Amino acid sequence: MAVNMVHAVGNQIEATIPSKASGDPALVGQMPGVCLTATDSAGKVVMKTDGFFNLSVRGVNDGGNVVVNNGDILYYLEADTPKLGKKATTGTRFGYAWNPNLAAGAQLIASGATATIAVKIGY
Q: Can you give the pTM of this predicted structure?
């Protein structure tokens, strides 16, 4: 085994992220993930950086309300509620909208609506 390996499995990390609950989407720099734990007294969470999670997503981008389709790239913006949407030029790339039972490009969220959908973390 390589002597310079830091973590054998790199899809779960501990990070300092204030005020997050278990299940919240989060960023460490530009790295997306979902908190597996709530922020502890030291300001730390355990975050998963891959996989599929059911998350709240809004059909919105920089220009206003838009439809979210199966396979669309989703972006994270801390100031938004919910944090995820189909933003064109703002936010940080987070993952993809996904429903395995629908064809690519099929509508998942109506324009301006908010829904909980499966999101594939990462890109």
A: 0.90
